[in-house]
Design goal:
about 80 residues; three-stranded antiparallel β-sheet; 1 helix; single chain; two-stranded antiparallel ribbon; mainly beta
Length: about 80
């Protein structure tokens, strides 16, 4: 379905976005990735296979985990 709300089955949408994994102990160590992508009916997803090693995020000493809840704060900014 067209994300703009039309009934068209063929669509594309240009988006510029930033994904951030927030380091809660030292903001300068937060990990940011910026990208521009055309989403369409042909290819609906886009991502980074090499965003960051999960071991770096899940290490309790790294500053990415929220207290004892084992949660990670991820921010996403999108401009369509």
């Amino acid at each position: 379905m067209d994300p703009r709300g039309t009934s068209s089955t063929k669509w594309d949408c240009f988006a510029s976005y930033r994904l951030t994994v927030t380091n809660l102990t030292e903001d300068s160590k937060s990990i940011h990735r910026d990208s521009r992508h055309i989403f369409s009916t042909k290819k609906k997803s886009h991502g980074w296979c090499d965003f960051t090693p999960s071991a770096a995020i899940l290490d309790a000493k790294s500053g990415f985990l929220v207290s004892d809840d084992c949660c990670v704060v991820i921010l996403n900014e999108i401009v369509v």
